[in-house]
Amino acid sequence: MKRVLVLAGLFVGLACGLRAQVMDTTVCDVIKKPESFDGKMVRIKGTVFAGFDEFAIKDVADPNCGFPVNAIWLSYPQGTKGKAGPVALLTIQPARNFAGKYTPPTRAAVTLDKSKDFKQFDSLLAQSHQKGADLCLGCARYEVTATLIGRLDTVADPSFKRDSAGKIIGFGGFGNMNAYPARLVLQSVADVTPKEIDYSKNDDATKGDAGMQPPSSGDPWVSIAFAQKLAAALGASPAKDQAVKAAGAYGKQNDHNSGVSIISGTANEAADRDEALGTKDSPDGVLFNCTLNSDRLQGEALARAIVHMGEHISEIREPDPQRGDPIAYVLESDAWVVTTVTAVASGQKYLTLPGGYLVWNSTWPEADRNDKMADALKDFLNNGAQLSR
After folding, report:
1. What are phi and psi of 52, to 5 degrees?
2. Helix (H, G, I), strand (E, B) or coil at 217
3. Radius of gyration of the chain from its Cα atoms, rounded to whole angstroms
4. What does the buried/exposed string (b/e) look like for 109-118 if buried means 16 or more CB atoms within 10 Å of the residue's CB?
5. Residue 190: is it exposed, middle or buried by C-beta count within 10 angstroms (0-12/13-18/19+)?
6. Is-contact 184 57, C-beta < 8 A?
7. 3-state secondary structure at position 153
8. How far is CA 107 from the centre of its chain?
9. Nearest-CA neighbor of 77 among 283, 288, 341, 270?
10. How far apart are CA 75 and CA 85, in angstroms?
11. What pLDDT, in 10s, does the model give residues 196-215?
């Protein structure tokens, strides 16, 4: 009996020790000094949003933490097969001929509790806002506030480091464009509270948008060809130059040396392969892995996603020498400008971003269009995507 009591005491002590390892914190505290949280198990009360190229957690009390990226990227453990996540994602991986030094990180395993709360959480975030034929890219129906427990992976600085020739020799970060300094790999979720996003103003303003529809085969290379044709037909301008570069960023079909891979699926897991050294060379020394959710990107939406991700690739590959590597806010702003320009050129009457931000409306007075678009895009980047200058 004495031995049984001793063992019971040990198990209780072990359980208490495991519970003690979970640290309570906030999104803003993590963003303020991410390197101090690397590898730690944390409990965070946050609001999760899934958008076009976002799947992240913002702070409940103060969504604007005052940093270039004001959110923590969210990932499920490898093999979860969840439904929620971004509809498009670009991640950068060191190629076999990477010019810098790279050691793949070693991380503790996380096992997800696929509880009723998690299933509700995942289902809510996977629902998209339906608005007929209008183009609403990555528009989720809900954002969800919850208590999240998981492992934090962090870096002090996610920005790119380059050598004198401009080759990338160092980078970190997580999520889209590897721009997030912190990632939470989810272990459990509780206290799930959904909030339906209000799109009513946009739904009233937009009454159907057929646009110029590319073939709806779901084949990204058909959409790439469509985007290239559309970009080439634009009038001479800096926007045309950007659009041509964006549509041409993928190289040629079946060119396995382009350094760009197009993957079909939902990019919501922290997979070991994504942080491993690549198995093939690239002209840039890094691999650009572009994941597109073919279930939610069809026809015109797929063509716009191709242009958007292509703009990211081209701008990371060849940053403007006058300004160097731009921050995430500028990269996203530039990509949305090119995306909008090509949407307008294809005949779209409206373009809505996640959260109900209308960045293009063909009924706007011509003299006001640039200002209205700029205001809507700034509002989206600050308050929707949680980015700032």
Report:
1. -70, -60
2. coil
3. 22
4. ebebeeeebb
5. middle
6. yes
7. strand
8. 22
9. 270
10. 8
11. 999 988 888 877 555 555 55
Closest alpha carbon to 308 in 343, 282, 264, 283: 343
Helix axes 238-247, 300-317, angle to 10 degrees: 100
Q: What is the DSSP string of 233-284?
A: TSPSSHHHHHHHHHHTTT-STT-TTSSEEEEES---EE-GGGGSPPSS--TT
Contacts of 334 (CB under 8 A, 6+ apart): 242, 311, 315, 326
334 and 355 Cβ atoms separated by less than 8 Å: no
Structural domain spans, the chain: 21-86+97-196
Cα 80–Cα 83–Cα 84 angle in degrees, nearest 5? 105
Phi, psi of 156 (to 5 degrees): -70, -35
Q: How far apart are CA 146 and CA 46, in angstroms?
A: 6
Contact 156, 182 (CB under 8 A): no
pTM: 0.92
Mean pLDDT by 10 residues, the chain (389 residues): 47 46 97 97 98 97 94 97 97 96 94 98 95 79 98 96 94 95 98 95 72 65 91 92 95 87 94 93 96 89 94 94 90 96 90 93 94 96 95
Stated as kind and residue range, the H or E segment containing 149 is strand 142-154
| pLDDT at residue number 212 | 53
The encoded tokens of residue 245 equal 């570069």
Is residue 180 within 8 A of residue 69, CB to CB? The reply is yes
Strand partners, 188: 149
Q: How far apart are CA 226 and CA 223, in angstroms?
A: 5
Query: Pairing relation of β-strands 269-270 and 72-77?
Result: parallel
* Phi, psi for residue 359 in degrees, rounded to 5: -100, -10
Nearest to 269 by CA among 110, 129, 377, 130: 110
Structure tokens at 14: 């072990």
CB 88 within 8 A of CB 52: yes
